[in-house]
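Dear colleague,

Following up on Tuesday's group meeting, I ran the structure prediction for the two-component complex that the binding team flagged. I've pasted the input sequences exactly as they went in, so you can double-check that nothing got truncated or mislabelled along the way. The structure tokens for the whole assembly follow below. Feel free to forward this to whoever is handling the docking comparison.

Inputs:
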Amino acid sequence: MPPLPAPAGPPAIVMTGVAVSAQREPDTTVASGINWTVNAGDYWVVAGPHGSGKSDFLMLTAELTAPRQGQYLFFGETMPIFDEARLKERLRLGLVFEDGHLLNHLTVAENVALPLRYHYNLDRSEAEAAVGELLAGTELTPWAKSTPGALGRSWQKRVGLARALALRPEVLLVDNPLGGLDPQHMRWWLGFLDRLAKGHNLMQGRPVTLVITTADFQPWKGQARQWAVLRNGGFEVLGPGAQP
Amino acid sequence: MEQGNVSALSSPLPRSLTAYVGRGLFRFLLTLQGLVAFALITLGVMISRFGAARQVIRPLVFHEVSRAGLRLLPMFLFMSMALGLVVIGQTVSWLKVVGAINFLGTVMVVVVVRELGPLVAALLVLARIGTANVIELGTARAMGEVEALEALGIDPVHYLVVPRVIGMALGVFALTVYLIIGALLSGYLWAFLQDVPLRPGEYFRQLANALSGLDFALLAVKTLAFGFIIALVTCYHGLAQPLRLEQVSGATVAAVAQSVVACVLIDALFILVYLVT
């Protein structure tokens, strides 16, 4: 797939000499010396074997953990952003967790509505139309009133995706989206992410910058445009247009 | 860092009494440091985010007030009857024996209004709601819900802790008032059933004479403080440290023990206030 023309403005993500710590053991470094630039409109797949630190790397990219070393800039802003004043910048980034990480006491619709209601101070009825659109776009409407515990893992992942899209992020990080899915769900994810990268109706036609982690490059061939590998405590970019 | 220190402290039994005491003291100081920091963070968020996301936070506060207040009312009415029987019924019969029935009002105010009422209410709310807090929040933390909130730009303290703190403080205050009124009324009922020669008017006149404005003010402050501290301690143990599912029960036990100690210490502080004034 040919790369899209790079838009004006600072790159979405610039990492310089970044070291990633394990989320569960903050004193342990799982990868270091990461030099990486993600431009707006890129579609990256970052692969690595089990235990290589893909999720920890994505948590850092999502600003949930700070780099142990180095500098991380997100649209020119130094990361991580924790202060309230720069929250708007932070919300340009969305994250889909591998297991969904849904709020179990809320229904599917309430999970998707939460970021909208919280950040725009909306009551239930005001968020209803936007939530209905997101649920329809991710084929979750029949489960709108179910709690996450009543759904299978494949559908929980989709709820996580719908929730992450609620604030219309410019950059979407997705942790191992195809892990544990059957072929039908896998096809749906690949198709949906492809439409997001090109400009989905849910995002008002605006292309979303994607960073996907995976244990297996194979399903992503013909989908992604940029590739990188996390292995042996390092991060290797496979070069423009290169495929593994 | 803190977790590392705590895990070092939970290693096998110490070899000497000094090491045992030192380890206990060190662990106590670490917990105290964590609790104070958590309390300051919570207060900071309550102030800095006051009025923010009102459409989301206000229903959560109402839910917590209902959970830590209204829904416990039947149990508290039962407990007020029991407290009336145990304290007032017994006290009245003994005061009658020694001919000091005129002191009934004073005894009731000191025992029920100042001491037992607030403490019993706080301990019951701790048992029913405080434990549930630790389990809910500990499980949420272990299941990654806190990270999910952070990823969505939602402050977990604002969303999970602030409603619980407000709800529990108001809940303990309201339930204490009901508990005290119920205990005083049922106490008279038990006294009446024991043929104590005391008219209702005389009983309530004694109560009114024994009560002062300070009692009402300190009752409000004390019960709000109980609710605040129980919510803080239970939320701290559920949220402040990364938990695995198997650690939730241990966190619950620690939270209950520390909440009881904190409530008794606050109560002792208020006794000092009464003694000074």
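The interface with chain A takes residues 4, 48-49, 52-56, 136, 140, 143-145, 147-154, 159, 242 of chain B (CB under 8 Å).

Cheers,
M.
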